Amino acid sequence: MLVVEGLVKRFGGFTAVSNVSFKVDQGEILGLIGPNGSGKSTIFNMLSGTFPPSAGSIKFEGSEIAGLAPHRIINRGIGRTFQIPRPFRRLTIFENVELAGFYGQGSHSRAKADEAAEKALAMVGLPTDRRAPVDGLGAAGLKKLELAKALATSPKLLLADESLGGLDEAEMDQAADMLRKIRDELGITIIWVEHIMGVLMRVVDRVMVLDHGEKISEGLPSAVSSDPKVIEVYLGTDADATQAAAAEKRR
Ligand SMILES: Nc1ncnc2c1ncn2[C@@H]1O[C@H](COP(=O)(O)OP(=O)(O)OP(=O)(O)O)[C@@H](O)[C@H]1O
């Protein structure tokens, strides 16, 4: 479904992403992990059109999309969430999601946008009542709203950026289960960028690990969490390694 080859992003003289290649198959959940500043968000920004790659190719369903504007990429069927939710606070929950629905359709039909918004809100478990305000949503609610906005664009591929930041442990488990439900019930392929490796490992089919803009490991969660390179650069501590191994056992 997605084939990325030789992706590079330079900011001035600094290389944030260095010759990264990977594939994502239809129906898969790929986890993308790595320490702070390893290039995860920069890859998402290139996949979603926020900025163009310095070099490399991004083929989605066989067509080159590298360098296309964000609205064109959304119309092709790639939706994304953002690490820090920034909804329009003067709009209701429904209106925020409806607006995203307008973007995704390309047809600008209100009826279609409303239908997409209702389905997306029901999927993530937020009120479909059109007057429900954004104010009052906690961290978990705002993450759900972020996800509903992305779903309302009717994506075939969802780029989920750090869905678990700011959540407690029970909320993290629910958010991880939600991503799996989105894949299982809607058939949406997912790339999931996350810091919190333990929960991610329970849900993803494959993991790719970045460090300093380079891919250092890729494979099944069990293989990646015991890869010495990953333990050295990413896990860092025995406690983290134990947590990841325990999560893997629970799968
Ligand atoms: N617009 C930009 N201009 C200059 N440097 C940037 C820009 N965006 C990112 N970088 C740099 O590129 C590197 C990779 O950043 P990126 O945000 O992709 O990492 P990340 O793995 O997503 O980190 P985090 O987990 O902290 O979000 C960092 O060193 C960052 O400072």
Automatic annotation (TrEMBL):
InterPro entries, A to Z: AAA+_ATPase, ABC_AA/LPS_Transport, ABC_transporter-like_ATP-bd, BCA_ABC_TP_C, P-loop_NTPase
One of the Pfam families matching this protein, by short name: BCA_ABC_TP_C
Keywords carried by this UniProt record: ATP-binding, Nucleotide-binding, Transport
Recorded GO CC terms: plasma membrane
Signal sequence interval, chain numbering: none
GO molecular function, one term: ATP binding
Record-annotated ABC transporter domain positions: 2-237
Protein name, entry field: ABC transporter ATP-binding protein
Species whose genome carries this gene: Reyranella soli
